[in-house]
Amino acid sequence: AGEGSGPGGSAAEDGGPPAPERVLFPPTFSVSEIKNKQRRHFMFLRWKQQQRKEKLAAKKKRRKEREALGDKAPPKAVPKTIENQRVYDETTVDPNDEEVAFDEATDEFAPYFNRQTVPKILITTSDRPRGRTVRFCEQLSTVIPNSHVYYRRGLALKRIIPQCIARDFTDLIVINEDRKIPNGLVLSHLPNGPTAHFRMSSVRLRKEIKRKGKEPTEHVPEVILNNFTTRLGHSVGRMFASLFPHDPQFVGRQVATFHNQRDYIFFRFHRYIFKSEKKVGIQELGPRFTLKLRSLQKGTFDSKFGEYEWIHKRREMDTSRRKFHL
Fold first, then answer.
1. Among 10, 183, 291, 320, which residue's beta carbon has the most beta carbons within 10 A?
2. Contact 294, 263 (CB under 8 A)
């Protein structure tokens, strides 16, 4: 199609009236019908530009209408997302449920929440870790207080766990790697379990984070657990909480966040910056990573004879995009 005709044509060339600045496409316009690849791409960009302009104009119109109505303006519409349209899970936790309270009082994490034990964490790696995994472990140990990094040196986990229990470690974290990239995390609560297996992705070390703050201090951070709503998610959240001491040192202004969204657990480590009495900013300290639960096993790590409470089976469980398990 020429510039003066067809969808998206510009001003007429033979002395006619100038075309309006706003390009109007016919209702039956389809970019895929244009056979010239360059022309098709050009028209698609113009069509997208028009869509953005119409959307922005409608947004401005709605804002002016709301300002004119003032207090009488109707409430804003809530956008539809996969998260707020999730399928109801019958295992969703009610904080006032007596059964949930009884389980919390008798589960493996009860000694921690009753302040009978103090967290002491051992962080180790798979055999022969590469530099990136080693640096990630070292940075993770600066996030979790009272954690110690040791290297495997070929020891099997079944031999490491009894040594950890004998030395009063309460948790064992194992960072696995593939092709020099950390890709898995095993978290085992000692001495009686449970053990969680996570797939790890999107790992960013401190030097890879833009606009990062200064190095973290040794203050005990606050812990934020978001959106762990089901019985399974409640157990995983309690597992993460038991890694950190009870009483955060607020003077350090540091916070570790485990945010669950669509069964992906996003970890971030920030520091508050008080700009004034009303304005507060945050600095990301790092590292950051994303976890996806693969299985939850009763007891300590046992790959052959372990009894599993929950295993993620993609073909059976991921039949709906709006079904979540945590």
1. 291
2. no
3-class secondary structure, 259: strand
Token look-up 């929440």 returns 113
Rounded to 5 degrees, what are φ and ψ at 57?
-65, -40
User: Do 48 and 187 belong together in one domain?
Assistant: no
Q: Please indicate, yes or no, whether residues 59 and 148 belong to a single structural domain of this protein.
A: no
Closest CA to 219 of 269, 266, 265: 269
Residues 157 and 226 in one domain: yes
Q: Which two tokens stand for residue 114?
A: 């009753």
The DSSP string of 201-221 is EEEE-GGGSTT--SPP-SSPP
3-state helix, strand, coil in the chain (%, to 5): 30, 25, 45
pLDDT digits (tens, 9 = 90+) for 140-152: 999 999 999 998 8
Q: Which of 119, 311, 53 lies closest to 199 in space, CA to CA?
A: 311
CA dihedral for 132, 133, 135, 139, sign (positive or negative): positive
